[in-house]
Design goal:
- With 276 residues, the protein is mainly beta.
- It is built from one helix and 23 strands.
- A nine-stranded mixed β-sheet has the order 3-4-19-5-14-7-8-9-10, with no helix packed on it. Strands 6, 11, 12, 13, 17, 18, 22 and 23 form an eight-stranded antiparallel β-sheet that branches.
Length: 276
């Protein structure tokens, strides 16, 4: 996630980052897998992600390689109070879900709270491990956002559209080693990262965010989240100290975020903020 964080915020979060601050960014989830929550849908908990992920189901000797992901959501408002700086991000992306992942290709929006208690809304993309990039599109509560990420070789195509304001952004980028092991539709507590550690920031109260039209392409097959060609996992954000790919993340957000069950078409769900 792309918000710059002041040294004061970093100190309060007890993160060891050099003077001048770090960047609030997406980070891979610290995932613990649990029992199934619905037919053919697995369950997991994370310290920073909530939503759904699709990954290889182990049905073939050749793992599923995802080349595209798409989805839409309604931008939620941030319920803010003075002194309650907090962050939330909503995105679609590829990669980052497995323990072996070292990259994520993603684009989305944010609903944040400033220290003065004012809401802030923005648009961004990020090709982890590179820093996030702000997109100059206006977004506000109630706007309908659609986004897509596609990978072909080392080329990553980012597309995001504000359907309410009739504005759009698209860019083709180069990335040395894109991760195609998974596809995600996520509400996130962005993290602040140093070279050795990532820590989720306080999760803004976004109420409920609704996702629709969630599809992916894996090894040439176009399907929904619940398509039997891959394994779907419902991810619950649980604010608890954890680790991300073996790196300490410290104090987690003082809130949870809970995904609903999938709609009957396999392309829709919601994520609800919940006080811890």
């Amino acid at each position: 996630m792309h918000r710059r964080v002041s040294a004061l915020v970093l100190a309060a979060a007890a993160v060891a980052i050099a003077a001048g601050g770090g960047s609030a960014r997406s980070a891979g989830p610290a995932v613990r897998h649990a029992a199934f929550v619905a037919a053919d849908v697995g369950a997991a908990t994370s310290s920073n992600w909530a939503g759904y992920a699709a990954a290889d189901a182990g049905l073939s000797t050749t793992p599923t390689a995802f080349t595209a992901v798409a989805g839409s959501w309604v931008q939620p408002p941030a319920a803010c109070a003075a002194g309650g700086e907090a962050y939330s991000a909503f995105w679609v992306g590829l990669g980052g879900f497995t323990e072996e992942s070292r990259a994520i290709e993603q684009t989305g929006t944010e609903s944040d709270c400033t220290p003065a208690g004012r809401p802030f809304y923005g648009v961004w993309y990020e090709l982890l491990p590179a820093p996030p990039v702000t997109v100059r599109l206006k977004v506000g509560p109630g706007d309908v956002i659609s986004a897509a990420v596609a990978v072909s070789g080392t080329t990553v195509t980012i597309k995001i559209r504000n359907r309410t304001r009739h504005t759009a952004f698209a860019k083709r980028l180069r990335m040395a080693a894109p991760d195609r092991t998974s596809a995600e539709w996520i509400a996130e507590a962005p993290s602040t990262c140093s070279p050795t550690a990532c820590q989720p920031l306080p999760l803004a109260n976004f109420g409920t965010v609704s996702f629709n039209g969630a599809t992916a392409i894996g090894t040439g097959h176009h399907g929904t989240i619940s398509d039997p060609a891959w394994a779907a996992t419902a991810v619950t954000l649980h604010g608890a100290t954890d680790s991300s790919r073996g790196r300490p993340v410290g104090v987690a957000p003082a809130a949870n975020a809970l995904p609903s069950v999938l709609g009957s078409n396999g392309t829709s769900f919601s994520v609800a903020w919940q006080a811890q």
